[in-house]
From TrEMBL:
The lineage of its organism: Bacteria, Bacillati, Bacillota, Clostridia, Lachnospirales. It comes from the Bacteria. This is Uncharacterized protein. The chain crosses the membrane at residues 7-27, 33-55, 62-91, 97-119. It comes from Anaerocolumna sedimenticola. Keywords: Membrane, Transmembrane, Transmembrane helix.
Amino acid sequence: MNKRGKTLSIIGAISVVVTILLFFLLTSERSTMTWAGFCSILLAEIATFGGLVFLESISTKLSLIVMSAIGGGALIAIPLISIAVSLLFMVSQSHAYKVFAAIQIVSLAILVILLIIAYQVSTSVKYTSDKLLSAEKTITRITDKLKMLADDRHNKVYSEKIKRIAEDIRYSDISTTVAADTEIETKIESLKLILLSENDQKEEKANALLDDMLLLVNRRKMEVKNTKQGGI
């Protein structure tokens, strides 16, 4: 449990203890409705702070913005409404037990539904954002490797071609990774070895690899397009 989770646990525990103390200090004649309202208030507090602590424990698996907006908002607003309803029925000493129970059940159902929706949406957003971040890191790694090769004074002969490949990749769709990305990285590593060698066929092999990379960049564009369209 992180620091925020511990803080919420402490606040929740204090809230429950204070509620119990106030209940016994401020009430003398305790009817069935009084007890029902008291129990509902305790459950609302436990649901609020318990839910918030749980959200903190799984925060790394969720989109915090979405979960805080929907889930966190629901965990605060709906229990507050439940507490307000409980206090109203307790003060008025109403005997409409069925109405009270119905309101609390509906409130609980709405809370559960909103939490389920929040969880589904936040996990989906988290997956998409993580996938995008991973793709951006991959493309950055590839273009950085190409830039280093292009800037090496020993590779002036191939510099323009390498820069062209890097630019083509940088300005393509980088929202997802595809099979061609791995092949491009493999070709870059092979190109590094060839450029460091003193082989008689160095220029021929280097140009062949660069041509292969240009083809792979074009293939990458098609793979990304197919992925977006659900073709792969």
